[in-house]
Design brief:
eight-stranded mixed sheet; alpha/beta; 32% helix; globular; 267 residues
Length: 267
């Protein structure tokens, strides 16, 4: 294991599993993730809904645990009954050249991350991550029991993943998102093209929850305010939540807590 301490150093009422998903991305043969299994998973035969939670630029699959206090927050929500038992998948969605470059999830600089969001990883996300999760764990493998969210660039990836795969995710959360990728090169550039057309199709059978959250001093706030108004004019059912503060972990952790409390509670 590249992370000998991660699965053991964090106390949680559930369990944390280290997983390598097979990768269909050129040059990469496997992709690393951590998977949280709810308390009781090992002892029962139940199937569970799944929440896929993405990091942002300069992040990897550990940041929601290390900086977002995710495991403690899940335990607290479960203990209070505010969150239903859920499998949570924390995948690495950075782009790497090959297995050597992957280096077991080496961190990327912000600039490197921005210039590599071109659809290479995202176009293969459902096949590599979602389908593999369904094959390895006792999931409920349908749209109504899958959620997707992320922060910053991960929030932008969530916008486009849910638009490109409208039958896959029934709950979508975007925490401090960018809306438009400025990099549309490479063989998978169609992933980040034609968002308006893709969302029009997506919202013919809209997600149960489409939640956009941002701080009032976040540098993306003006563009997200405008985007929310556009969604409203088009009649796309969504929630827009404006908090105090900026592009920071204290907001993302709280946004995630609010989002998790809404999962699997569709009217």
């Amino acid at each position: 294991s590249s992370y000998p301490s991660v699965c053991s150093e964090y106390e949680t009422r559930g369990s944390l599993e280290e997983v390598f998903f097979p990768s269909s991305e050129p040059g990469i043969t496997k992709r690393h993730a951590f998977v949280y299994l709810p308390e009781g998973y090992a002892a029962d035969t139940l199937r569970y809904p799944v929440f896929y939670l993405l990091h942002g630029a300069r992040g990897n699959e550990t940041v929601w645990i290390d900086k977002g206090d995710l495991l403690h927050n899940i335990d607290s929500l479960n203990a209070s009954g505010a969150m239903l038992p859920t499998i949570v998948v924390l995948p690495n969605v950075n782009q790497y050249n090959d297995d050597s470059d992957y280096g077991h999830a080496r961190l990327k600089s912000a600039l490197e991350s921005f210039y590599e969001v071109d659809g290479t990883v995202e176009a293969r996300f459902v096949k590599d991550v979602v389908d593999s999760t369904d094959s390895l764990f006792r999931t409920i493998p349908d749209k109504d029991h899958r959620a997707l969210a992320g922060l910053s660039i991960g929030a932008m990836q969530s916008i486009y993943l849910s638009a490109n795969f409208p039958d896959t995710f029934g709950y979508v959360g975007m925490f401090s998102p960018m809306v438009h990728s400025f990099l549309k090169r490479g063989p998978d550039n169609a992933f980040y093209s034609s968002l308006n057309e893709k969302m029009a199709a997506q919202f013919t059978q809209p997600p149960h929850l489409y939640m956009v959250m941002i701080g009032d001093t976040d540098f993306f706030h003006p563009s997200i305010e405008k985007w929310s108004r556009t969604l409203g004019r088009k009649g796309y059912r969504h929630e827009y939540h404006l908090a105090k503060g900026g592009h920071e972990w204290y907001n993302w952790s709280e946004f995630c807590n609010q989002f998790m409390q809404r999962l699997w509670k569709a009217e």
